Structure formats: structure tokens, C-alpha cells
Amino acid sequence: MKYGISGRPAPELFVPYWINAEGMHCPPVTLSSLGQRHRVLFFYQHWCPGCHSHGFPALLSLIERTRDRDVAYAVVQTVFEGAETNTPERLSEDQRRYDLRIPFGHEGRLPGHRLPTTMENYRTGGTPWFVAVDPAGVVLQDGFAIAAEEFIAAVDKARAPT
After folding, report:
1. Please, which residues have CB within 8 angstroms of residue 152's CB and are 6 or more apart in sequence?
2. Strands 139-143 and 129-133, bridge-based pairing
3. What are 130's strand-pairing partners?
4. Nearest Cα to 150, choosing from 50, 38, 35?
5. 3-state secondary structure string, the chain?
6. What pLDDT is attached to residue 84?
7. How many CA atoms within 13 Å lie on the side-chain side of 118?
8. Is this model's pTM higher than 0.70 or not?
9. What distance in Å separates the CA atoms of residue 66 and residue 40, rounded to the nearest whole number?
């Protein structure tokens, strides 16, 4: 299977459980609720060593580097294994651990499915997985890492006066 969907329209998020920037349960977050701007989705699992050693540090760096730009962020725990450990309760723990004041979602597998819907729709290869979406809703890049310079250049190009 070919992973990723770069260059294609970003599928809507159908993640059932979310906490907001304050760690409180909230209505589901969707791509449209994140606004018509550049968006970054970060998919992870609480027990994933690479998510904590590489993924979250890369996310934190990107957030810091885009603080003065109009970029929305959301984190989704896509549980395809270890459901007993990768629970919704872990969201607020990870949100506090990294001091991330952005929405966190949790999605497990539906009965009869091998992967959570989000992983199927975005054709992810596992976790950590980054997805960068432009204001028109097209996936700019996705994968185990994000090309931060390339993403920031796209954001700056989009906001440059014509």
C-alpha cells in the first residue's frame, strides 16, 4: 500500500472524542472548525517511543516557529494497537506534559476494522504521522516527519501580498 495522500483533498476528521486547549471534553473538532487556513494534524499514540522522542519535539518546534503565523494545530491519538494503554485519559496527560494548548482527539478502531478511520482516510504508515493542509484543504505533505522549512515557506507565500 502507498502511504500518504499528498496533493489530494484532506478528508474530514471523524474523531469521536476531543478535549479542548484547556483539557476539557469538547464537541468534535473538524478541519472546517480549524478554519480556512494552514492546518497541521499530528497523529500519535501515547505509548509510541518515536512520538515522544521525535514527533512531539518536532511539533513543538513547528508551533514555536509559526507563532506569528495563522496556523491551526490539532493532535489525534490514533489507536491501532495497545488500546489498554492508549486511552482517552492519556490525552490530557500528554497535553500537559508538552504544555500544548491545542485540541487533542482520540480515535480507536471500529469493530471489524484493522485501523482507525483517520488512519485509513489519511493512509498513514503508523505513528508519529504529520499532515500539513493548505487553506484550500489540499494536503501539502504527510509522513513520519514534517519538512518544517517547506511548510513555513508555503504559509509565508500564501500570506504574502499579491
Report:
1. 65, 66, 69
2. antiparallel
3. 42, 143
4. 38
5. CCCCCCCCECCCCCCCEEECCCCCEECCCCCHHHCCCEEEEEEECCCCHHHHHHHHHHHHHHHHHCCCCCEEEEEEEECCCCCCCCCCHHHHHHHHHCCCCCCEEEECCCCCCCCCHHHHHHCCCCCCEEEEECCCCEEEEEECCCCHHHHHHHHHHHHCCC
6. 92
7. 28
8. yes
9. 11
Tally the residues of the chain.
Answer: 162
Q: How far apart are the first and last CA of the chain?
A: 40
**Calpha distance 2→67 (Å, rounded):** 33
Extract the C-alpha cell encoding 16.
469521536
Asked whether the beta carbons of 42 and 55 are under 8 A apart, the reply is: yes
Q: What are the pLDDT digits (tens) for 87-145? A: 999 999 999 999 999 999 999 988 888 899 999 999 999 999 999 999 999 999 999 99
Type of residue at 131? V
